[in-house]
Amino acid sequence: LLAQRTAEMHIALASDQEDPEFCPERFTQNYQRSIYAGNRKLVTEKLNGLAQRLPSLPAHIAAEAKQALDLRDEIMECFSEIYQKKINATKTRVHGDYHLGQVLFNGKDFFIIDFEGEPLHTISERRLKKTPFKDVAGMIRSFHYAAFGQLVLNQNYRKEDMPFLEKWAHQWFHYVRQFYLTAYLDATEGQSFIPDDPEALRLLLRNYTLEKAIYEVGYEMNARPDWLRVPIRGVLHAMDEYFRDKENIE
């Protein structure tokens, strides 16, 4: 149901063909390069900040942070795919700050709230058209927080139980993510913002999921250091999927 409501939001935001502020626009090579340029800046800022904080992090967090930092070149290689392939899709107005905290459930249905966009961005940046996969990736990252947040923060779990618990958290996240994404794609089939090439679709989803996880690394470093393991694991998970896809193609 949440996927259905997400799809209906995006279809509504893409439905006005007259108002230039809302009319969908085709992807261009320049636009795809601009996405990469933004991602390159993001990686430089957030991973440099993480590297500076590394000596002060607890050992268990520092170890995973080091794994992410060691993947910097591969992360940029992953992001570079966004401009190496022509993407036949449109960009539209989107929610811009979409996650579980932006939906209300009354026991029967979901209601989407807070359309002001990402608070750290300027108003002009929030009004820019983007692929709706930015919102989809934001919700998927929120599922990851739901799966691992309490495991990471709860000190009552025995250390020897964590591998078992984390295995099930990962299984839950994988199931919910796939169920949500499948339902969303079923509801948006034929829409102009959905690429007609499955490879391009996976590319967009991977790009924005990784982008969101790296953004969260920077946010948690400054706002909630205890939560830092969750987005770091998000980065590592996204890169694991990238490596698996790469192996399958090769």
Identify the overall geometry: globular
What is the count of helical runs?
9
Low-confidence stretches: none
Structural class: mainly alpha
Instruction: Classify the beta-strand content into a percent band.
Output: under 5%
Number of β-strand runs:
4
> Main beta sheet: strand number and arrangement?
2 strands, antiparallel
Distance from first to last alpha carbon: 37 Å
Q: Could you estimate the helical fraction of the residues in percent?
A: 55-70%
Rounded Rg = 18 Å
Order of helices and strands: HEHHHEEEHHHHH
What is the residue-mean pLDDT, rounded to a whole number? Answer: 93
Give, in spatial order, the strands making up the sheet with the most strands: 1-2
Describe this structure in words.
- Strand 3 (103-105) and strand 4 form a beta hairpin.
- The chain is globular and about 55 Å long.
- Helix 3 packs parallel to helix 9.
- The chain has helices at residues 2-13, 29-53, 59-70, 72-80, 123-126, 133-153, 162-187, 198-223, 229-249, and strands at residues 25-26, 90-91, 103-105, 110-112.
- The protein has 9 helices and 4 strands, in the order H-E-H-H-H-E-E-E-H-H-H-H-H.
- It has a two-stranded antiparallel sheet with strand order 1-2. Strands 3-4 form a two-stranded antiparallel ribbon.
- With 250 residues, it is mainly alpha-helical.
- The termini are far apart.
- The model has no long low-confidence stretch (mean pLDDT 93).
